[in-house]
Design brief:
Layout: H1 3-11, H2 15-26, H3 30-35, H4 50-62, H5 68-71, H6 79-89, H7 99-106, H8 111-127, E1 140-152, E2 161-164, E3 170-183, E4 186-195, H9 210-224, E5 230-234, H10 241-249, E6 253-257, H11 264-270, E7 276-279, E8 283-293, E9 296-307, E10 310-318, H12 327-335, H13 338-351, H14 363-386, H15 388-393, H16 397-410
Length: 428
């Protein structure tokens, strides 16, 4: 396909209408939920509804406009864009909300209310049944990992984590723990927990950490998703007795990376208790089942990959019923942990959304911007994976952003006649 043919295919495609159709079909309550957010503004001076504020931010992110100045640019604040967002927001607009207006609202939105929207998005997708084929023995797989958002030489918000360097300098940084639902080749934010010091600490007080954040998070996940079964997946940090017992308490399965310095007793006895092995030219599998460790019964397994005279070893522990027939599938599930790094954090940091740009020094606003990025990323993945044109043109993530922005700012979309008789299909 030459460049002219690609242009012609794009010319007649209303990507905004398709995006709105996805929102309307899978998240019919989403835009209305924005209007139910607590609004502390003096209503006598309010120009823009909460829905309009939130939709402007959401669609800006969907178009790859990550910063506040991007949203207020002439490129976005065009006549056609104003008309399209007027339809979506059900409010006659002369101009889009200015970035200061959005920022003022985001400083006052209750973060827990956005968590409820996050829960609604995830449950709506699960209830649609389109993810059912990605269950393993009735369980959805959840990926857990933390990532740094930003680093500073001053204590932003007075609740940053602190790192003391050997030269005496101190760095302050923002950190978040993410839980992603993995379905096929996409990752969807199921929960987010900020790792932060609630107050200035003395030298004797311990900082918040990923393990503590995990404990807070899974308690909330159990409350929000009481009927669902999960397989918890994480790196070697999670391969500890307390976390394993927490998984057992909640009736969840787990697959954790096993490092040589973790659970040494299991590492030491693994080689002497191998029940199954499959050695080939490039890939070797080793399995040891029914290992008893501090009142826990689990399995340990090892995968060795041989490429170009280099051998890479992956070790795992799990309480799943691992057999010769399913060990390869379970190893693949263990290796999917990297998807939270690649499809999750890397995409959000470097390909689009720019989560390292906090958008505000205000702690509440910073967190709320982060949640909107998660909303936008979920919706974008549905569009990218389900849209046949995007797939056929092999558009890159930034090209999709540009395509959406061009459509939103150059075309008046017909949002009255939506296509709802479509089905999204995802690659494995």
């Amino acid at each position: 396909m030459n460049r002219k043919e690609r242009r012609n295919l794009r010319k007649d495609k209303d990507l905004v209408k398709e995006l709105y159709s996805i929102i309307n079909k899978y998240f019919p309550k989403l835009l209305g939920m924005f209007d139910t957010l607590t609004d502390t503004r003096n209503q006598s001076y309010v120009t823009y509804k909460m829905k309009t504020i939130c939709v402007t931010r959401l669609f800006g992110l969907l178009c790859g406009l990550t910063t506040m100045t991007d949203i207020s640019s002439d490129d976005f604040n065009s006549d056609n864009c104003i008309k399209n967002l007027s339809k979506i927001c059900n409010q006659d607009l002369e101009e889009l909300p200015y970035w200061e207006t959005i920022q003022d609202v985001f400083m006052k939105i209750k973060t827990d209310e956005l968590r409820n929207i996050q829960k609604y998005i995830v449950k709506a997708l699960i209830r649609s049944k389109m993810f059912d084929r990605y269950r393993f023995n009735g369980c959805f797989q959840l990926l857990f990992d933390g990532t740094g958002l930003s680093s500073h030489d001053y204590n932003l918000n007075n609740n940053c984590l602190i790192r003391k360097h050997r030269d005496g300098k101190i760095s302050y940084y923002k950190y978040v723990l993410e839980c992603k639902l993995i379905v096929g080749n996409i990752v969807i934010s199921l929960d987010s927990e900020f790792i932060e010091n609630k107050k200035m600490l003395t030298d004797k007080q311990k900082q918040d950490c990923e393990t503590n954040a995990f404990k807070r998070m899974i308690k909330r996940i159990k409350k929000n998703y009481p009927k669902y079964k999960f397989i918890i997946t994480g790196d070697g940090l999670y391969a500890t007795t307390p976390i394993i017992k927490l998984c057992k308490k909640y009736n969840w399965h787990y697959i954790f990376n096993l490092k040589p310095d973790r659970l040494k007793e299991i590492n030491e006895t693994f080689e002497d208790n191998i029940n199954y092995k499959n050695e080939t030219t490039h890939k070797d599998y080793y399995l040891s089942t029914n290992i008893k460790y501090k009142g826990i019964i689990l399995s340990a397994f090892k995968y060795m990959e041989n490429k170009k005279k280099k051998t890479t070893i992956f070790r795992y522990i799990s309480d799943l019923d691992i057999k010769n027939s399913n060990i390869k599938e379970i190893i693949c599930m263990g290796r999917k942990r990297w998807k939270i790094e690649n499809e999750g954090f890397y995409t959000q940091k470097h390909r689009t959304f720019n989560i390292s740009h906090l958008n505000s020094r205000n702690d509440t606003a910073m967190k709320n911007h982060y949640f909107f990025i998660q909303f936008a990323h979920t919706i974008r993945q549905l569009l990218e994976q389900g849209n046949l044109l995007i797939k056929s043109l092999k558009l890159k993530i930034k090209e999709v952003s540009r395509f959406l922005l061009d459509t939103l700012t150059s075309t008046i979309s017909d949002l009255n006649n939506l296509e709802n008789n479509f089905q999204l299909r995802f690659d494995d």
